[in-house]
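not sure who needs this but someone in the group chat was asking about AIG1-type G domain-containing protein from Amborella trichopoda so here u go. i didnt clean anything up, its just raw.
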Amino acid sequence: MEDCHSSHHYPDGKSSDILEKLDALQVNFLRLVHRLGQSSQNLVVAQVLYRLELTKQIRASNSNAKRVGLSIDRAKAIAREQETAGQGGSELDFSIKVLLLGKTGVGKSATINSIFNQAKVFTDAFQPATEKIEEIAGTVMGVKVKVIDTPGLLPSPSDQRLNRRTLRTVERFIRKSLPDIVLYFDRLDIINMGYSDFPLLKLITETFGSAIWFNTTIVLTHSSSALPEGPDGTSLVYEAFVAQCKNIMQHHIHQAAADTRLRNPLLLVENHPLCVRNREGEKVLPNGQAWRSQFLLLCISSKVLNDANALLKFQDVHGKQNNQRRPSLPHLLSSFLQPCSAPNASDLMLIDEVGEEVTDLESEDEYDKLPPIRILSKGQFKRLSKAQKEDYLDELDYQETLYLKKQLKEELRKCRDGLSINDTDGHNEGEPPPDTLPLPDMAMPLSFDSACPTYRYRFLEYSNKWLVRPVLDPHGWDQEIGFNGVNLEASFPIEKNLNTSLNSQLSKDKQDCNFQMECAATHIKEKGPSYYTGLDVQNLGRGLACTARGHMQLKTHKYNKAGCGFLMGSIGSNVFVGAKLEDTIAKKRWKLVVDTGVMASQGNMTFGGRLEASLRGKDYPVRRDQASVSLTMLSCNKEVLLEGGLSVQFRPARGTNMAIQANVNHKKSGQICVKGNSSEHIQIASIAIIPIVRALFRRREIQHGHPVTD
């Protein structure tokens, strides 16, 4: 007879030991299933066997093993032979620990007596029977079972303090030895259809963490009670009523754990001594199921899967999605390789960005040499011929371009002289700046009220460097203020070329509180190195994400700039660091940028590079006509990731701007975005008819039951 520990060919002994333990675990599970009288075709059994087989394949592929181990059919044969060889009544080296939670009076202690088929604990139908935490141990069908009985929780919201004290006592009790499965009890006959049980479930989540619900089974006692009546006066169908109660409990758990991925199994229990029994003497539910065998099957399945995860050291991602978020190194590196820009430092960045282009312009302003143009009225313009209209509009466009170039040269001159561009906006030279300036109006949501209080959203900018304004909630109600946060912006010019900025926002509603802050410092010299440092802080659920970055750029030639940068950050307990080198070659009509960098986190590293070429229009930077092509290549875990991008901005006609962006990756997936705006050709808005008509046809097909294809 072949044993489940038969040797296979493995490259290392450690992988052989783990795979042999998985084989032994699979055989023991099949033996327990045989003792429970369950078939291997049972849905729960089939799912456990599938996950065990998948676990062995993952381990074998990681260790380059030549064989995966025992097949499912061979494991079934070995388990059958061991059970029929006189070992069917012996105890297996298998034990489970169960934690019981639930409201008082729902039947936790009575269920313990039914599990062991004897009076292990005291029960009382009129008052709470469990006053302290107790451990009850025994053997059921050759399986060592240890049950942790806890005092019942009080359902009233006013008893939250007592419930919190009880749960903290339970949490300290199980801290050294965690249970394999948790049973949450409630009664099927008096289940609460409202939200009064939600505070209790939320308290359990706050005490034990969201991970407790991953190994929790919902237990509904009194499952043989009379069913309620439906709207027509007849009793409801048993399966439909049970499904309805399970959905209610599952919804409450989703809300308490903030995780809709949870799918908790359901166990129906009946502890009444007059309950119907089958030939083996087990209590049977109205659906014909022996609940004691089902209880053992669920507990054994959960224990087996937990042991398999422990062998391979799988991490449980349930309940940690808010606190533990592992950063994606390819995404971080791809974002890090993008061009660096300092917020709230546009005046200082103007010299570094467009200084060469403006210097190459004519030394004297052509706009001042132009003869004055006569602005025609609408009536005069209509009387012109078609050719005259085109010449008139071309002349206006030409003079507008020259005027914008003149303004840009003045702004650059002020930046070089250390003057702030914003200090002269809105008032004449030689006059003191005004104390306050009106800020632009916020984009208000649509309202059906003619007396909508729009004046509440108008604010002034004072002469100091601090700007504080509320954050508008676009989904607010009519007649409501709609403020759910505050935004703070500040800029502090320290020296001629040194500027610091602060931008933070805090928003709060009844459930969530979000905070984000961005601090930056910029030092730019026209003929020297430029430095930029920044710190970003924001909350991610209950965790905190911090990122510190820096960038230095040095002009090595008239048309060449070399730079380097670093990045350090943390998301929860995950820390990542990165560094990059870049080189830029820029002339008036074209620009070439080459970047290369590395990102590391938790022992993993990602390398990559980025190449971008840009072609600019003849009137750049006054007219933002340009086309850019980029290629990003990353190497992560022996896999090469490619992504290409295209960006085009141009003016197809006078008064019309177009922007096209497209990208595609190595998986042949991508997106295309086309944006257009026009002040003359308003018929371009008719394009919106296409998605409207398409949505109407899709809705019609869905109503008639036809399949919808994209």
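also Residues 1-13, 315-324, 419-427 have pLDDT under 50 and may be disordered. if thats useful
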